[in-house]
Request: fold
Amino acid sequence: MTKKTLLLLGFILLKFFLQYILISADYDLQRDEYLHLDQGQHLAWGYQSVPPFSSWVSYIIRLFGNGVFWVKFFPALFGALTILVVWKGIEKLNGNLYALVLGATCVLFSAILRINTLYQPNSFDVLSWTAFYYTVINYFKTEEPKWLYAAAVVFAFGFLNKYNIVFLIMGFLPAILLTEHRKVFAKKELYFALLLALLLILPNIIWQYKNNFPVIHHMKELAVTQLVNVRTSDFLKAQLFFFIGALFVILAGFYALIFYSPFKKYKTFFYNLVFTLLVFIYFKGKDYYAIGLYPIYISFGAVFIADKIKEGWKRYLQPLFIAIPILLFIPIYNLFFPNKSPEEMMKLSSTYKSLGMLRWEDGKDHTLPQDFADMLGWRELARKVDSIYLLLPNKEKTLIICDNYGQAGAINYYTKQHLKAVSFNADYIDWFNLSIKYENLLRIKDLKNTDDEVKKTLPYFGTYLLAGRVTNKYAREYGTSIFAFTAANIDINKRIEEEIKETKRKQ
Reply:
C-alpha cells in the first residue's frame, strides 16, 4: 500500500471517528431525520418535500436494524466520499502529495462535518455537486464523451436526492457560455447525455405530475414561512464561515482560475462561482444550500498553493497551511456542534446571538440554535405516548395524530409499542391506515392553549384527558401536549377521510 493510499485511508477513518463523537448523548435525532427514516417504510418515486433517494437509504438502514449507528453512518459515508472526490480532483489537476493532504484537511475540518452529523439529503447533495464538478474537470481535460454521460448520471442521482442541484445547472450554463467550452453544445453526445439524465429522473417527474406537483406547493410554503426571512447579508456572511479554515485555499483557487496558466482550460469554474452565488441570492436560498459549491475549489487552490510555495519557505509554510484549518476548527467545534449539554450551551448564548445562530426560521431569536432545539424532547414525547397508550381501553383501536412530521416520526422511531403515528403534515397525510375502526384518539398538539383542542375534538368522543406534556424547556417542542380521547361516538374514520381530502384540496 502506497504512502498516498495510507494517507487517504487515514483521512477517511478520521472522518468517521469525528462524526461519531461530535454529538452529545444528551441529544436525540433531529426533527427531519425521523421523516426521512419513515419514508423508508413507504417507498415511492417522490414525496411531498423531497425526491426518493433518501427513502432508498432509509430502507437500507431498516435492513441493518434502524439503529442510530447506521442513521449516522450514511451521512458520514457521503462526507468521506466527498473527501475522496476532492482528492481525485487534485490528482486530476496534477497536484502533488502535499496538495492532496492540504485539500483533504480543508474538506475534513469544515462545515461539512456539521452537515454530516444529520441524516438529511444535504450530505449527498454536497457529494453530488462535488462529483458533478469532478466529471466536468475530466471532460475539460480530455473531451472524452464518457464524462458527459458520467455528469448526467451524477446530476440525475443528485436530482433524485434534492432538487437543490438545479441551482448548480443554473449557475454553470451561463458560465460555460462565456468560455471556449461552449463548443460542447454542438456535440451530439451532450444531448444523448441529457436524454440519459431525463430518463433517470423521469419516474420522479411522472410522480410529481400525478400528484399535482407538490414540490411547487412546498416551495411556495417555504418561501412564505422561511425564505422570506433570508437576508442577503446573512447569506454572504455564512459563506465565509462554512469553510473558514479553507478560505485562503478557496480564494487561491479562485485567483488561479484567472491567472495560473495550467488552469486556463478551467476558467469556466471562475464564472460558475459568481453566477451560482447570484442565483442563490436572487432566489433567496438558505445559506447552506450553497455548501456543495466550494469543495471543488479547494482542489484548485490546493494544487496552486503547493506549486507556488518557494523552495526555501516550504519548511515553514507547508505545516502552517495544514495547521490553519485545524486551528480555526477549534472554535467551530466549541460552537457549531451539539457536543455539550443544553445547560452548558446556554453559557455561550451571547456568542450564539452575535453570530445570528439564535435566529430561527420564524425570524425570531430563541434560547438555543434551532437545530439543537430540534434534537431535544423527542424521546420524552415517545415515552409518554407509549405509557398513555398502554392505559387506554381497546388500545389496538387507537389513532395517533400529530401536529407535525417531527412528532409523528419521533414517536414511530422511539416507541416500544410499535405505534404508527401520523399527521396531516408533510408525507404523513398519505400514510393513514383507515382499515382499522378507531375508537380512541391520541392527539399531539404543539399549541399551548389546551382549550382549543378540547372544544374542537371532544364532541366526537365520550371522555378526554390532558395526559402529558413535553417538559424539556430547551426543546423546540417544549409544551407539546398529549390529549387522550376515548369512547368515540361517531365514525372517526369517515371524519379523518374528510379532513385528509380537505387538506389535500388546500394544497
The radius of gyration is 25 Å. Residues 378-506 form one domain.
